[in-house]
Task: inverse folding
């Protein structure tokens, strides 16, 4: 009796994961690409390296039904070394036009990394689960970094505060949806209130940044001549102006 050996199963080649990454949103306030791109170029020339090769989403909520030349926008952003990867918000006609230019609609997710199974030929019907009536909202998490942030690194604390026990070196970037606390020198870029929280603040024991931002309002190093550089500073948002208060 002969035995026929079955071929071995091929090794696993990939896995799909649903993940969250650091991602900023460029909110378009006008559909005039000829106005948006020069304004962006002017701003980024004041802060060399800011957003260079950074993936961003294009926010469409403020446009209403105004049309956008998405191919020209994508081309112009890439010329500025900014990488648009999709759009958020906006009306269906705008999202469809963006998709035609290679910008899919992005959907926010608050979940951690999870495994995603490839779809099977027949899917089971989805069952909607109602939330428990006494369920409590999840507590905001605080991310703790216990070493210096090196040049080229980007750290994002999603949904909470960021605490860094060390320095943020030039050429690095730290982002938080909440506050940022730096128990060392801030020489790179720090962006607090990334989820449009105007109450967020930045605290640094030694303040000498390339750029600071709260809820989208930012200042670059060249504009901080009257700020106590090299000392402890608290950065907060007052209306649409950044305020720099000494610590202690």
Result:
């Amino acid at each position: 009796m002969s035995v026929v050996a079955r071929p071995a199963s091929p090794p696993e080649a990939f896995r799909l994961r649903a993940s969250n990454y650091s991602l900023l949103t460029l909110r378009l306030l006008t559909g005039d690409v000829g106005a948006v791109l020069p304004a962006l170029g002017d701003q980024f020339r004041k802060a060399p390296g800011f957003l260079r090769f950074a993936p961003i989403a294009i926010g469409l909520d403020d446009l209403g039904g105004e049309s956008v030349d998405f191919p020209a926008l994508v081309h112009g952003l890439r010329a500025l070394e900014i990488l648009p990867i999709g759009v958020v918000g906006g009306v269906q006609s705008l999202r469809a036009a963006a998709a035609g230019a290679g910008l899919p609609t992005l959907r926010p997710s608050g979940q951690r990394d999870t495994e995603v199974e490839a779809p099977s030929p027949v899917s089971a019907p989805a069952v909607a689960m109602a939330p428990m009536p006494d369920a409590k909202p999840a507590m905001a998490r605080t991310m703790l970094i216990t070493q210096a942030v090196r040049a080229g690194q980007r750290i994002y604390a999603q949904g909470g505060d960021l605490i860094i026990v060390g320095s943020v070196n030039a050429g690095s970037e730290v982002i938080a949806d909440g506050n940022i606390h730096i128990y060392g020198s801030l020489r790179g870029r720090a962006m607090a209130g990334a989820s449009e929280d105007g109450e967020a603040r930045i605290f640094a024991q030694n303040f000498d940044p390339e750029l600071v931002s709260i809820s989208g309002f930012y200042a670059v190093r060249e504009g901080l001549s009257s700020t106590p550089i090299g000392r402890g500073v608290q950065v907060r948002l007052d209306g649409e102006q950044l305020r720099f208060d000494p610590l202690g």
In short: Confidence is low (pLDDT under 50) at residues 109-139. Residues 19-100 form a domain with the Alpha-Beta Plaits fold (CATH 3.30.70.260).
